[in-house]
Design goal:
This protein is α+β, with helices and mostly antiparallel strands. Helix content is 63%, strand content 6%. The chain is built from 21 helices and seven strands. The radius of gyration is 28 Å and the shape is globular. The two termini are 46 Å apart. 30% of the residues are buried.
Length: 522
């Protein structure tokens, strides 16, 4: 079992070295096309997924009996570094402390193995969840036509064209919004068919599995993002060549298509045209210049090389650092301890736990939390009196915690010109009776804005009869939340978030984390 830890460290460094090598040698020393680089990345993905399975091999092997060994029967470790350390420590039998240190290391490795098993199970859960999500999406599609094992469908629930491989069949799904635009529809169809020919839909399973198994590693996320970019570039080149399209016309059509479809895809077991602006820019550049590698990517790949050298020390530090993250069991115990003095039933899940650990167990989070609680003291009587006058749950005060840290901020400190403790934008402030003009800004009047914030939350509650939806409406806007509840036919806030109907930047999880902290500290 110890060998798994050692193999994991080997794979960690090997993967980063392969990533950096693939990018740094490209075009600099070896003539690699985008397709060749993509194949190299694919090989690295397979290595990362299969090498850890080597720990299933027997860690010990019998020495075959022959004339030289017929009187000897012993075992020799196979790639078992930790056991070698143990043998050396025991054989010396001089330094008892060394022996204790080795045993301590063994316990640490066992704990790390358990941690990795939990991570793997969580990754498998995320993978299965995405599989179910894809299946539900396909059930709601409308059939257009089919040929062989490929099905062309349309859907209202997606915002960008996608293709996917699902149980032996290939699907191309087009948003209904572009069906009445023949040119855009044709470009999208060609694009997704090319992804199917290249096998990108099948590769999406391997990539997402790797992403799930390594969801705590940001380098893996960046690597997979690079692979998706290469897939799109290669697809663009083949569509242009296969259909004899003018590059400039294709680029314009691509921009129009992406503008019409809106945000990127949110089905990870698929490949689609939905991209970020940076990826779109690189694709356009690649159409103009046959082969190019962004200097930013050269820097990131070089950084990956450096990180691979220092990877072991960073992992070791993460296990010996001063701060220890709360477990779900500990968080539930904390929640139970404040249950009696809570007006709003507090909740705990993975998202809330993550935000709680950010606030309590990171340097920036601890500083923010401490300052916010100090700031709250000067407004505590006024805020609690206002909340009590409306007979609202006292946990609503936590909105001020996550919005501003209870700082009365001027609009100049916010990109959308929100102001005050409760971060009202101008239009919302005017709607709730606050004067905002060149002479006065009543958002900076703590009492007036606090009263307006409670009225806004109360209005949202009257609309949805649900405090969680009221909080999401405070952050996202009531109309957006209403449309999401109508589409999903549900008023469960967590279902709306998990199914992708709403994106709240973890606002609801931050609220519950802040409420738990404030209830336990005050």
């Amino acid at each position: 079992m110890h060998m798994y830890f050692e193999w994991l460290l080997i794979v960690f460094n090997m993967s980063l070295l392969l990533i950096s090598l693939a990018g740094l040698i490209r075009k600099k020393y070896i003539k690699l096309t985008y397709g060749s680089e993509l194949k190299l990345h694919g090989l690295a993905v397979l290595v990362c997924l299969t090498v850890p399975l080597l720990h299933l091999l027997p860690s010990e092997t019998w020495i075959p009996v022959n004339r030289a060994t017929q009187t000897i029967e012993y075992r020799q470790p196979l790639l078992h570094l930790s056991e070698v350390l143990k043998i050396n420590a025991y054989s010396k039998n001089k330094d008892r402390k060394l022996n204790e240190d080795v045993e301590g290391t063994s316990i640490g490795k066992e704990a790390f193995l358990i941690f990795m098993i939990v991570i793997a199970l969580m990754g498998l859960f995320l993978f299965l969840k995405e599989l179910v999500k894809s299946y539900r999406m396909l059930r709601k599609t409308h059939h257009i036509k089919g040929f062989g094992k490929v099905r062309l469908k349309s859907s209202e629930s997606i915002t960008s064209p996608i293709c996917m491989y699902f149980f032996g069949k290939s699907y191309v799904v087009i948003p209904e919004g572009i069906l009445n635009q023949p040119k855009l529809f044709q470009i999208a169809r060609w694009h997704e068919y090319e992804h199917l020919r290249s096998g990108d839909a099948i590769w999406s399973y391997f990539l997402y599995l790797l992403k799930c198994m390594s969801f705590i590693n940001p380098l893996v996320h960046g690597w997979i993002g690079r692979i998706h970019t290469l897939q799109e570039v290669r697809c663009d080149q083949r569509v242009i060549r296969r259909n004899n399209i003018n590059k400039q016309q294709y680029a314009m059509a691509l921009i129009q298509t992406i503008e019409s479809i809106g945000r990127p895809r949110d089905l990870y077991l698929s490949v689609g045209m939905g991209v970020t602006s940076s990826v779109l820019k690189e694709r356009i550049i690649c159409m103009k210049n046959k082969e190019s590698l962004n200097s930013k990517w050269r820097f990131l790949l070089a950084a990956a090389f450096v990180v691979s050298v220092g990877g072991l020390s960073s992992i070791a530090y993460s296990f010996t650092g001063a701060t220890t993250e709360l477990t779900l069991k500990q968080a539930n115990a904390l929640m139970a301890s404040v249950k009696k003095k809570s007006d709003l039933p507090l909740k705990m899940n993975r998202e809330i736990l993550a935000e709680l650990n950010k606030l309590l167990n990171t340097e920036s989070g601890q500083a923010y939390t401490q300052k916010a609680l100090e700031n709250y003291k000067q407004y505590q009587a006024m805020i609690e009196e206002t909340v009590g006058d409306y007979n609202f749950p006292k946990e609503l005060r936590s909105v001020g915690f996550i919005e501003s840290g209870f700082r009365n901020l001027p609009p100049s400190r916010n990109p959308v010109k929100a102001a005050g403790i409760w971060q009202f934008i101008k239009s919302t402030a005017l709607r709730y009776g606050l004067n905002v003009n060149s002479n006065i800004d009543e958002r900076l009047n703590e009492e007036l804005e606090t009263d307006a914030a409670m009225r806004l939350l109360g209005a949202n509650y009257l609309r949805f009869q649900n405090w969680e939806l009221s909080l999401l409406s405070y952050y996202l806007g009531g109309n957006r939340v209403y449309e999401a509840t109508r589409r999903a036919n549900s008023k469960d806030a967590w279902d709306l978030l998990s199914q992708g109907h709403l994106q709240d930047d973890n606002y609801l999880a931050k609220f519950y984390a802040a409420a738990l902290i404030m209830n336990s500290k005050l």
